Amino acid sequence: MLSNGAFDVSSLEQLETYIQNNIKYIDYFVVSSNLFECALELALRLFPTWKKEDLELEQCKDGITNKLIKCTNKPLGFSILIRTYGNKSEVLIDRKQEIYNIVSLSSLDLSPPLYGRFNNGIVYGFIEGKVFSVADLSDPFKSLLAAKNLAIWHGTDIAGEKKPNLFITLKKWLKEVTKSYDNDEKFLKHFNIEKLNKELISLEQELVKVNSPVTFCHNDLLYANIIYNESAKKVSFIDYEYACYSYRGFDIGNHFCEFAGFECDYSLYPDEKFQMQWLRHYLNAFNSTRDATDEEISILYREVNKFALASHFYWGLWGLIQAQLSDIDFNYMEYAVLRFKEYYKRKDEFLSL
């Protein structure tokens, strides 16, 4: 699959060569306590013709992993985003893969361009539009735009090992949790490591039987990672740090879990009627030569709801790790508790589908 003639996005070698030759690296470390001054310094280094007095900086606070500054050159009407990685977030995120993702997706017009790299972050393009709200996820029109865009994502051929790493990641994270919470009273009040290990083994055994197709997945399609452009009537996905090859069912099931928002209000989890319509639209976009059958939609419905359980496990472990590492003001422990609570509540129901 060629990308605008620049390189073959399915070739890791060509991708690496392109990045080294075309994406500027700045030897600079952003200090989180001095975000604005550091962001200004980076912008002027990356775009040396820009003038300090022309720039306007604004912190974006929708994310709970990294720290993000929007820098706008007012005379040009042009904006960039300067993302500083969260504290020790490399425990959770493969930053090299993230760069591969952005460059590859950008070449396919599925993400903004990557302008530069620095010691603890990246600089990339800003997508015009409005960030989705939780309510937008279930909007009859906007939700189907998201379904169509996800189908496009799942049809791409991006460089990297085309094997699902979902359970590899979950096992790695569970080891990190085991190491981080040795005899921690707050943790032990809610969790048992031995039980989590047994639960993960059991869940993997159940989900591999589903035979969910492996595709290139976003893996973090919450409301804040979807941008709606009103004039173009289209959506774009942002934040590609968790994107990799994974199970189709996980990507969609995870998206449905995100209807609950950060508050984890699972009364907002989409019902069967909504899901069936969404899944029909997704399949019709993915298989553009024919309409999906009712049987195909029903099979996918069972698939995504079973994998929704893996979403709870994934972000539950993520929350436990972030509770130990992150300096962002968010109650990660409480988030983890709520995700696992919903996992156990829905487990029998979803696995019996």
Automatic annotation (TrEMBL):
GO molecular function: ethanolamine kinase activity
Metabolic or biological pathway: Phospholipid metabolism; phosphatidylethanolamine biosynthesis; phosphatidylethanolamine from ethanolamine: step 1/3
CDD domains referenced in this protein's UniProt entry, alphabetically: ETNK_euk
Matching Gene3D superfamilies: 3.90.1200.10, Phosphorylase Kinase, domain 1
PANTHER family the record matches: CHOLINE/ETHANOALAMINE KINASE (PTHR22603), ETHANOLAMINE KINASE (PTHR22603:SF66)
EC number, UniProt record: 2.7.1.82
SUPFAM superfamilies: Protein kinase-like (PK-like)
Protein name per Swiss-Prot or TrEMBL: ethanolamine kinase
Keyword check for Kinase: yes
Family: Belongs to the choline/ethanolamine kinase family.
UniProt keyword Protein biosynthesis present: no
CC per GO annotation: cytoplasm
Record-level GO BP terms: phosphatidylethanolamine biosynthetic process
Database matches in InterPro entries: Kinase-like_dom_sf
Pfam families recorded: Choline_kinase
Keywords noted in UniProt: Kinase, Transferase
Enzyme class: transferase
Domain of life: Eukaryota
Organism (species): Rhizophagus irregularis (strain DAOM 197198w)
